[in-house]
C-alpha cells in the first residue's frame, strides 16, 4: 500500500483553471511583473499564438512559432536568441508538450520565467523536467528553474485538439498517474491525485470522442490531465516511461501514441507486484483490481487508440535494441525486468 514513511515536496506553482480563463492571461503575466513576454508554440498553432499575443495588452514582445517535437537543440537556441534580441523578460508557452518544452529550454538557458497555457493532456507544464534533442539523442534533466510559474488551463483551447490526439494524449496522462501509483517516492497526496486524475480523464474521454466540442467533457479531461501531470512532476517514473523514452528516441515514434500502445502491457507486467496501484487503477476504471490491465486495453481500443507498435511505425527488427537499451539503464520498477519478460512484453505490444 501507500508507504507510511515519505517526503512530500510541493512544487510552487499557481494554477488558473476554467473555460474562458485565457482572457485572464494578461493579468497573470502582470501579476508576475512581466512586461515583454515571448509567445512560443508550434507552426500548426500559429493563429492561436498570435491571438494570444494580441490579448496581452501590449505585454507581448513577439511570437516564435517554431516549436517541434522533442525540442531540437537548434530550435531551442534560436528561441533563446530571439528572446534576448527582443529583450523578453519571460515566455508564454501555448500548446502541448513540444511548446512547453521549448519554453523550458529558454528558461534553462536564460532563466526567464515561463507561463504555460496547455492545449493537450501531456502534462509537461506541471513538471520541472526539461528535454533537448541533438544528433538523434534526447537528454533530459530536472531543474526548478524550468517549472512554469503560472499555468492557465482553458478547456476552450482543447476543443480543437483532434479526437485521435485527444485519446492518445489522454492515455499519456493516465500513464503518468499509473506510474505515480507505484512510484518509489509516491505519497498520500500523489496517490489521491493519480487516482482522481485517471478517473476524471477516463470518464471524460468517451464523451470527448463522441462530442469533441463538448466543454464539460473537455473540462473533465483537462482537469484529469492537470492532476496526472502533477503526479509526473512529483514522482519518479518507472518501466513504462523508460520504454516509451527509448522507443520514441530511437525510432522517432509519435509520443502520445507510443504511450497509449505500451501502457496496458506494462500494467499487465507490473500489476501482480503493485497491488495497491492496480486497486486504485481498478477504482478509476470501475473494475476489480485483477481486471484493470484488461479493462485499460479494452478502453483504449474502444476509444480508437492504436493498439500495436507495428501500427505506429515500429520496425520489428528494432525490438532487441529496445530491450538492450532498457536493460542497460537502471531505474525503479515494482516488478523485476528480465531480458525474457521485457522481450515478451515488447512482442505482445508489437
Ligand atoms: P505536441 O506538443 O507535439 O503537439 C502535437 C500536435 O498537436 C502539434 O502539431 C500541435 O500543434 C498540435 N496541437 C496541440 N494542441 C492542439 C489543440 N488544442 N488544437 C489543435 N492542435 C493542437 O504533443 P504532446 O503530446 O502534447 O507533447 C509531446 C512532447 O512533450 C514530447 O516531446 C514529450 O517528450 C514532451 N513531454 C514532456 C514532458 C515533461 O515533463 N518534460 C511531459 C510530457 C510530454
Automatic annotation (TrEMBL):
Pfam families: ADH_Fe_C (PF25137), Fe-ADH (PF00465)
Gene Ontology MF terms in the entry: alcohol dehydrogenase (NAD+) activity; maleylacetate reductase activity; metal ion binding
Residue ranges annotated for the Fe-containing alcohol dehydrogenase-like C-terminal domain, each copy included: 167-350
Database matches in CDD domains: MAR
Keyword terms of this UniProt record: NAD, Oxidoreductase
Gene3D superfamilies, sorted: 3.40.50.1970, Dehydroquinate synthase-like - alpha domain (1.20.1090.10)
Domain Alcohol dehydrogenase iron-type/glycerol dehydrogenase GldA: 12-155
Family: Belongs to the iron-containing alcohol dehydrogenase family.
Listed name of the protein: Maleylacetate reductase
Originating species: Actinomycetospora succinea
Amino acid at each position: 500500500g501507500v508507504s507510511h514513511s515519505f517526503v512530500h515536496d510541493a512544487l510552487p506553482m499557481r494554477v488558473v483553471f476554467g473555460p474562458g480563463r485565457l482572457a485572464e492571461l494578461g493579468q497573470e503575466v502582470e501579476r508576475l511583473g512581466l512586461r515583454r513576454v515571448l509567445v512560443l508554440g508550434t507552426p500548426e498553432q500559429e493563429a492561436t499564438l498570435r491571438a494570444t499575443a494580441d490579448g496581452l495588452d501590449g505585454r507581448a514582445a513577439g511570437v516564435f512559432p517554431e516549436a517541434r517535437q522533442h525540442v531540437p537543440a537548434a530550435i531551442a537556441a534560436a528561441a533563446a536568441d530571439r528572446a534576448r534580441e527582443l529583450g523578453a523578460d519571460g515566455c508564454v508557452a501555448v500548446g502541448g508538450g513540444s511548446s512547453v518544452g521549448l519554453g523550458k529550454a529558454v528558461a534553462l538557458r536564460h532563466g526567464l520565467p515561463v507561463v504555460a497555457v496547455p492545449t493537450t493532456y501531456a502534462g509537461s507544464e506541471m513538471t520541472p523536467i526539461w528535454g533537448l534533442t541533438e544528433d538523434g539523442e534526447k537528454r533530459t534533466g530536472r531543474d526548478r528553474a524550468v517549472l512554469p510559474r503560472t499555468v492557465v488551463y482553458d478547456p476552450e483551447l482543447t476543443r480543437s485538439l483532434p479526437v485521435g490526439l485527444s485519446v492518445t494524449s489522454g492515455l499519456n496522462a493516465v500513464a503518468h498517474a499509473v506510474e505515480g501509483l507505484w512510484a518509489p517516492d509516491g505519497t498520500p497526496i500523489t496517490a489521491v491525485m493519480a487516482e482522481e486524475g485517471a478517473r476524471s480523464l477516463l470518464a471524460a474521454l468517451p464523451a470527448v470522442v463522441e462530442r469533441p466540442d463538448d466543454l464539460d467533457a473537455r473540462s473533465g479531461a483537462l482537469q484529469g490531465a492537470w492532476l496526472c501531470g502533477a503526479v509526473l512532476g512529483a514522482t519518479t517514473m518507472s518501466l513504462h516511461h523508460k520504454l516509451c523514452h527509448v522507443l520514441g528516441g530511437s525510432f522517432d515514434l509519435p509520443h502520445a501514441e507510443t504511450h497509449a500502445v505500451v501502457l496496458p502491457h506494462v500494467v499487465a507486467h507490473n500489476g501482480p507486484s503493485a497491488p495497491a496501484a492496480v486497486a486504485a487503477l481498478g477504482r478509476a476504471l470501475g473494475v476489480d483490481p485483477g481486471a484493470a490491465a484488461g479493462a485499460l486495453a479494452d478502453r483504449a481500443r474502444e476509444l480508437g487508440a492504436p493498439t500495436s507498435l507495428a501500427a505506429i511505425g515500429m520496425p520489428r527488427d528494432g525490438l532487441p535494441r529496445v530491450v538492450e537499451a532498457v536493460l542497460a539503464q537502471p531505474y525503479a520498477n515494482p516488478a523485476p525486468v528480465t531480458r525474457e519478460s521485457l522481450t515478451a512484453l515488447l512482442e505482445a505490444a508489437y
